[in-house]
Amino acid sequence: MDQNNTPPEIFTGSFTQQEPIPEEGIDAAVAVMRTGRLHRYNVKGEEAGEVALLEQEFAVAMGVKYCLAVASGGYAMTTALRALGVKPGDRVLSNAFTLAPVPGAIAAVGAVPVFVGVTEALTIDLDDLEAKADQASVLLLSHMRGHICDMNRLMAICARHDVRVIEDCAHTMGARWRGRLSGTDGVIGCYSTQTYKHMNSGEGGFLITDDDQVMARAVMLSGSYMLYPRHLAAPPPDVFEAVKYDTPNISGRMDHLRAAILRPQLRLLDQKCKAWTERYRVVEDGLRHCPGLHLIPRPAEEEFVGSSFQFLLLDWAAPRVREVVSRCAARGVELKWFGAPEPAGFTSRYDSWRYAPSAPMPASDRILAGILDMRLPLTFSLEDCALLARIIRAEVSAVHQAA
Q1: Is the pLDDT of residue 110 over 90?
Q2: How many Å apart are CA 150 and CA 173, to the nearest integer?
Q3: What distances in angstroms separate CA 210 from CA 65, 248, 314, 318, one per listed residue?
Q4: Residue 4 pLDDT more than 70?
Q5: Phi–psi pair at 303, nearest 5 degrees
Q6: 310 vs 115: CA distance, rounded Å
Q7: Residue range 207-259, pLDDT digits in tens
Q8: For a designed S-S bond to 217, which of 76, 79, 83, 175 qualifies (C-beta 3.0 to 4.6 A apart)?
């Protein structure tokens, strides 16, 4: 209790409880199940099918020519690497601060990551990228936890060094840099529809591009056999002639059931993105000027989606960070610490991935040691978010003052 004998506030919400699937999606999924035709190429007569329609609608929403719906965001990234011709032993540039599916996608094709550092803005270190850009011909760029770097400068660096860019937009579906949708600057954009992302099908993902040959290879890789004419958001059949005999089938298709529940969610995407960012701003405002706590700057050029919240306890000793995490947990607030020496839950760091060789990165280690992360599901109200900020502020302040 505090000095006035008032019990401390406790948060009782769930950080893993998402919104329900829209009724329209539930009805569409039930209709698919009643037909028994779940496989994307199992359609009746001239019907397009839920997957092909979803691909067409997502391509329109992203303002691109082509879209492929697949089994997961990780599969989308692996397919993107293969579609660009990345082979075993090739080096691929990527973020040191990301989640394990990103280096996992590189490892899945037998390639070797070249890790690029992270800034205090939690974006890829563009000076470090410039220094390492001559080591690879592909950058798998992770917009980690929804933070977008200066994409104009990044694309200029990559153009100078003939580096092709794949964007991992698992956390930036619907976000923009200078008005351009995330995923449309690089050759390929990859997205996830895993439960905790901006659209929810349990697992799933998308790959988008304007490149005819890249999309033809991706469709073949996904397991189209010779059924590619059934795609609505893909190149014409003649483009496949150059790749169909030389591209392996590595099946990872999305099914009609998942597509059925995603189509109505896509129509709600802009509305949901605004709602997430509104919640983010409430937490951000509640933590301003908290002693010892560094907020992450959000540049004016970035239209972000605040589906999670990060802050830095920069240069704090590890026991003090652990104490903040523990004290917040005791009051119902789940914070994930990316600086922990051992992976926990979804958190890990570049030196945790022993299948991916790495050199020490002291500047990035300093930042990773202070990153705390919190989900903001749309099941939280604005009042919930204000309470989260009050609890975090109180516990950070208490530990900071006791140091």
Answers
A1: yes
A2: 17
A3: 5, 22, 41, 46
A4: no
A5: -100, 95
A6: 21
A7: 999 999 999 999 999 999 999 999 999 999 999 999 999 999 999 999 999 99
A8: 83
